[in-house]
Amino acid sequence: MVSNFHLPPTGFGPGSQPAPEDGTELAYMELPQNMRSYSMHVPDAPEEADVSAALELLEKIADAAGLVAIDGGRARFDLGRLDAANRRLMAETLGHGEVAMRLHGIPAVAVQESVFAGVWVLKGADVDAVEVAAVPREAGARAALPRRVATGPRTALTPGVVNAPPLAVELFDRSATWTPEAEIHVVNLTLLPHTEEDLAWLDAALGQGSTEILSRGYGNCRITSTALPQVWRVQFFNSMDTLILDTFEVTAMPETAIAAPEDLADSARRIRAVAEAIR
Q1: pTM assigned to the model
Q2: Are residues 125 and 263 in the same domain?
Q3: Which of 126, 133, 245, 275 is the most exposed place for a label (fewest CB within 10 A)?
Q4: Which residue has the higher pLDDT, 245 or 28?
Q5: Which of 198, 192, 199, 186 is nearest to 249 (CA)?
C-alpha cells in the first residue's frame, strides 16, 4: 500500500484549477477619485481691455481675506459695477471651489465658493457680489426660515415609527437651550437603530429650512437646514455616492461648510500671487 507521503498533493497540477473560460475575472472595488486640490491658474487678460478694475478688486478681496482670517467678520464687494471684460476676468480668476449653496427665500441666492477658500460668489435677483467670510451671512440667517413648517414632537405616529420620537425630543430640547458658546451636539443616525418610517417622521417633525449646502471633496457632504433653529441634517457620501454617515447636528453652522482662518489667510496669499501674475 502506498503511503500518503507518496500521493501527489491535492489542488495542484493539470486539471486541478478551472480553465480560463470557466473562471471569472478578478473584480476590483472602484477606487476613490476626483479629489480636488488647488493648483494656481493664471487667466489670460485680454490685451486690448483695461482690467485694472478687476485687479484692484482682487487686491481688496485679498486684503479682506487677510483681515477676516485674523479678526473674523466679513466683507462684501459688488461685482455689478464691472464691465464685461473685468467681470469675465473675475469669473475666470475666482473659478469654482468645493462648496455650493442654495439659499431659498426672496430673493433666492445661489452661492458658489471660489477656488480660494472663504471667498464666495453670490448670484440672485439684484445680487451679484463676492463675500469674504468663514461662511456667507445669509446661509445662517435663512437656515431656519421654514420652507416646510416643523410639526414638532407631537407629530402623529404612523405604523413603523419606533425610535424617532425620543430623538425629536432631544433635538428640540438642544435647539431651545442652544447658545453660541455651546459645543456641537451630534445625533448619529448611522449608529442608532431606526426604520424608514422613523426618518420620514423626523423629516415632518423637524420641518425644512431654507439653506441647502453641498460640499464636494473626497466624496460629498450634503447639509440641509431644518425649520428648527440650529438643527442641521448632515449626510456624508463616499466617492461612489453611498451614504456612509447620517447625522443631525445642533450648531450655528456645520464645520464642513466653514472656511477656517488658516484657509482664509492662505487665500489672501494666493489671490495676491494670481493678481501679480496677471499683471
Answers
A1: 0.81
A2: yes
A3: 126
A4: 245
A5: 186
